[in-house]
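Progress report, Aim 2. The chain analyzed during this reporting quarter is listed below.
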Amino acid sequence: MMRSRPALLAAVLTAGPALALAGCGGSDGSDGADGPEGAGGDGGSTVAVPPPSAPTSAAPALPDGVTTTAAGTELGLGEQATVAWQVGADRQAVVDLTVVGVQPAPLELFDGWLLNGVADEVAPYFVTYAVENVGDDDLAAAAMPLFLGYGAEGALVAASGFAATFEPCPSTPLPIPFEPGAATEGCLVYLAPSDQPVTAVAFQATGDVAPVTWGAVAPR
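Predicted structure tokens for the chain:
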């Protein structure tokens, strides 16, 4: 059942940076070459998922006949929202988005990946979703402003990316191409602080409105 609760998570974004994970053996990172433009590492690796832009105060324009889900709406896992955000300077994203599941992921799955010395401080989560492009623009390689909320203050962390293919949960942007009417399913990796409870998944495109959230996150 849908309910509006604007204070579920902080309306002003407190997002942690996305952590790019590099394989430490067995891969040269070439699998990330089809991703969006990202930060190149010393070994020429490419970050698969850049952190989404920080929310702005400008509300995106909508195609005729499209109504987005009200800010502050709280959904259950498996429920659909219509959401919109600006992609760069010239693309407007409007999608039907469903957060399907949120599950803790064992650290053992990250054996062979470098966690930048923070393995003892993070708790990984897999967020699965389904999305359909209901707008007018091709959303190729767009990163959704979809965050994982944690802690009593409602802080948000962005999805992490990989310098090569991570089979359990690829954590990549939208496909290339992703034209109007296209639909896909995906999985994103989030690294929350291990000493904080995870509370919800949050879509937040602008910093002056409450996010749309999906609750019922599985406990660790």
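The chain has no helices and 14 strands. Residues 1-17, 24-57 have pLDDT under 50 and may be disordered. These observations will guide the mutagenesis work planned for the next reporting period.
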